[in-house]
Design a protein that fits this description.
Two copies of one chain form a homodimer. With about 425 residues, chain A is an alpha/beta fold. The first copy, chain A, folds into three domains: about 1-85, Beta Barrel (Barwin-like endoglucanases), CATH 2.40.40.20; about 90-135, Up-down Bundle (Transferase, Pyrimidine Nucleoside Phosphorylase, Chain A, domain 3); about 165-250 and about 265-420, 3-Layer(aba) Sandwich (Pyrimidine Nucleoside Phosphorylase, Chain A, domain 2). Helix content of chain A is about 40%, strand content about 15%. Chain A has 16 helices and eleven strands. In chain A, a hairpin with a 2-residue loop joins strand 3 and strand 4. The radius of gyration of chain A is 27 Å and the shape is elongated. The two termini of chain A are about 50 Å apart. At the A-B interface, helix 2, helix 3 and helix 5 of A face helix 2, helix 3 and helix 5 of B.
């Protein structure tokens, strides 16, 4: 919200800081208080200034500029000055406080994540905040507050009690998430149908490609719509127990998108930031239990087993603090999956597995069933050590294939295709 | 330098990173090498990508977008994509390295200050660099490199051997600088004429108001031009031994202006950054010996005597490393000068002192003569403990007044005015 005013030089010295005069009648109408900060803009100048109220010194359409302002910035009498009433966001002071080495309170962190979500602070200011993730760093309780703050600044979806049968009331909402960096994109489209067929709620969100040729979302999109509204997602999960959608369409934890765009400038992300982002999105999706896939190796995001272990412990601790039970699944990987040949051929591989065709990729099948089995064990749907076999049974019997298409049609797929129909270039 | 290209989706997977194809003929003409990074812009998307050369895959006016790019960023075939050939600046990697906790080499720091000067990196990226001043922080050798890098990325002025008489060859180039935060603006216009009358070279630059009603530059501007070109400044000093100009017009250490604009977003500056800025400007002005005025007190920039002492030692050490002898002049101050009533009345006070009028402000006179005396002692123009008296002699005899107007006229003043002529509102 902003207004244009006519500049008027006034002979006032205010000492430290920058001040403007606004007419009392105007400030009352706009709900501006004395001492409040507003942002004034003139040509390429942007300044946060303190408001002083006056009855007589300026008219309602004028802004009185104290000596400090008009002398330094050469704003002539009568020129138009734009005043944004938002003022200087509190988060600026909190970010500064953190940069100077102090711990932030929960309230302060919530203000920061909210004002980032609302784009009340500029990218330069967000960059100072992101720098704090490396130095001086955030402790675990701050990371929890950041994750909560990010989640609660956006929508929180509720899948509890949304199972299709009355005996699903109160069922676990589970999920699987990979920290990324190594393609394992075939896993989700195999895991979600099995888990939901087994009677658990699994509202899964995936991403589009970042460093690999195709993200899970890109692959799924070859056969079903993946950009669903918040309402539609809840409906799909209510009917089928699961979904396989693009998280980007849900606008959950909106501060994260802003923060990622600022991180991209420097191509760097801290582990704490990585954890906060993932935890925030899972809070927003109402998840109870989650399997976190942490691939490590020379070409992965996490290089060493020690880092994978440290990150596992961090996930467990931070997730626990927000009431989500997490199970890190660390695995050594040598390099990107050799089959990274685009979304259509990757979707064909997945359908080959579900259709039990002889040319199915056995490596992908094994990885997916191992993770699915683990998630079944965690959720009590399978005895320990028996998860893989249980998962295998769902695929071998064709129940996973049926569930895959059930979900796809609820999401809006128009026709059922076979692996043999999937040809690149269409 | 940049060009528009027609987007063309190509079926290429490059694994990690983002790649584009450009025609060989084009890359040869533009001097782009395979593997070089360029910045592509499409709508609000800006990406640094690696160039791959091709003879056949794209035409000269096309840019081939690998799968990673067109699938993630939804860039349609045929749309115009802007390519900036500058590529990803090296300083991004060095800033990232510092943020991760490593010390930077001299070469790396020089690249950063140069690319900031040339505006090759964006404000977000500069903000990450500025955050490093607080955490992890720079050590003294890095601060020296930053100051040198900032200075050498711009012009370096040479006043050596520019004295008016042959016996001035090799004379000291001296200066006085206040770290600011407390007005002591009358000092410079009294100090410079005395020092130059005493036979030293003093090319003084001052600033416009930042937090006070009027900066020294604003005050001087009421009676003489202060925005001089680099060439004109050298000429004035050659003729008069001194100058009193606005530093902002010289564009010295240009990275500093960019860094200050980014610091302003958070209203915070570290001591190391303050020292680096001042040292950089003094290197650029070719100063040999400098008196640094460090006022401290509850309302000053520096609050405690301990901080003033620490800052003094830092100045001495960093200035020494760049071959400048510095003399910190710490003093306790209670608050801003009560006479802060705008440039015209402050100029009148100064002229009252120079003209030896009975209504002259004795407090201002004493402060100015103390600092001037100290500088005379440092430069060997006065015995220790005798500087104040020597300075007083220059004022009392009228030689300071004559020198003031001599400098003013060389800078382009049109008429000599008396204190009694100075009236506000003109």
């Amino acid at each position: 919200m902003g207004l244009y005013f006519k500049a008027r030089k006034v002979d006032l010295e205010m000492g430290d800081g920058l001040h403007v005069l606004l007419n009392n009648e105007l400030t009352e109408k706009e709900g501006i208080k004395e001492g409040q900060k507003v942002l004034i803009s003139y040509r390429d100048i942007e300044l946060y200034v303190d408001v002083i109220q006056t009855d007589t010194k300026v008219a309602k359409d004028e802004i009185g500029l104290s000596f400090e302002i008009w002398s330094r910035y050469s704003i002539p009498n009568g020129d138009r000055v734009y005043v944004s009433m938002f003022g200087r966001p509190d988060s600026i002071d909190y970010i500064k406080k953190k940069l100077m080495g102090s711990k932030l309170s929960k309230d302060e962190i919530y203000v920061i994540t909210k004002e980032i979500s609302e784009r009340k602070i500029r990218d330069i200011e967000v960059a100072y905040f992101m720098a704090c993730f490396f130095n001086p760093g955030f402790d675990d309780s701050e990371v929890v507050d950041i994750a909560q703050g990010m989640a609660h600044a956006g929508d929180i979806l509720d899948f509890k009690n949304s199972g299709k049968n009355s005996d699903m009331k109160g069922a676990f909402v589970v999920d699987k998430h990979s920290i990324g960096g190594i393609p394992a994109k075939g896993v989700t489209p195999l895991l979600v149908p099995i888990i939901s067929a087994a009677g658990l709620l699994i509202p899964n969100t995936s991403t589009r490609a970042i460093t690999s040729p195709a993200g899970t979302s890109d692959i799924l999109e070859t056969v079903m719509p993946i950009a669903l509204s918040n309402e539609k997602v809840v409906e799909v999960v209510k009917k089928t127990n699961g979904c396989m959608i693009w998280g980007g369409a849900l606008k959950l934890a909106p501060a994260d998108d802003v923060m990622i765009s600022v991180e991209k400038a420097l191509h760097v992300q801290s582990y704490n930031k990585l954890v906060a982002s993932i935890v925030a999105k899972k809070i927003a999706m109402g998840i109870d239990k989650i399997l976190i896939d942490i691939p490590y190796g020379p070409s992965a995001k996490v290089k060493s087993p020690e880092d994978a272990e440290m990150l596992s412990e961090k996930f467990i601790k931070i997730f626990d603090s927000v009431g989500i039970e997490s199970f890190p699944y660390t695995r050594f990987v040598m390099g990107p999956d050799g089959r990274g040949i685009g979304p259509v051929l990757e979707m064909r591989d997945i359908l080959h597995v579900l259709e039990r065709n002889s040319e199915r990729p056995h490596g992908l099948e094994r990885t997916a069933l191992e993770m699915t089995g683990k998630l079944l064990e965690i959720s009590g749907k399978s005895a320990e050590g028996r998860g893989y076999d249980t998962a295998y049974g769902f695929v071998e019997s064709g129940r996973a294939l049926e569930k895959f298409w059930e979900i796809a049609f609820e999401q809006g797929a128009k026709k059922r295709v076979k692996a043999a129909d999937m040809k690149p270039g269409n």
